[in-house]
Amino acid sequence: MKNFMAATLALAATALASPAMAYVIEVTTSIDLTDIADKAQLHQAVEAAVEDVLANAISFSPTAITVQNARVVGDRMYLLLLIVDAAGENALEAIADEDAAARASAGAVDPTAPASTR
To answer: Has this prediction a pTM greater than 0.70?
Structure first.
């Protein structure tokens, strides 16, 4: 009976808890490469593209912006940006930790572990 009561209380606490608001988005943007002659101009163009996304595509204050992928197709560079706030960073870390734990419990080899422990 104690286990049933504890499970009921845990379920009630979980049901009443409100989830934390976290922002995690991926955005694709592109840059025209026809007028870019050197690394400095490319750097400025990437910064301008990121600033444009921040000004026009999102409505929260990000704490981290990461270029996930960059590809050149023809005369354009396509950038895949990951933009998160502080709660989003925490959520991504929790997901990564759960994935690592799931791989470890499934017998997968942890690539960050020393070779002697594999």
So the answer is: no
Count of domains forming the chain: 1
Expressed as residue numbers, the domain containing 34 is 22-107
* Beta strand ranges found along the chain (DSSP E): 24-32, 64-73, 76-84
The Cα-based distances of 15 to 7, 9, 11, 18, 48 in angstroms read 12, 10, 6, 8, 44
Residue 83 CA neighbour count, 13 Å, CB half: 19
18-62 pLDDT per residue, tens = 566 788 999 999 999 999 999 999 999 999 999 999 999 998 899
d(CA 80, CA 2): 51
Residue 84 resides in a domain: yes
Residue 100 lies in a domain: yes
- Domain with residue 102: its CATH number is 3.30.1660
Closest of 33, 16, 82 to residue 54, by C-alpha: 82
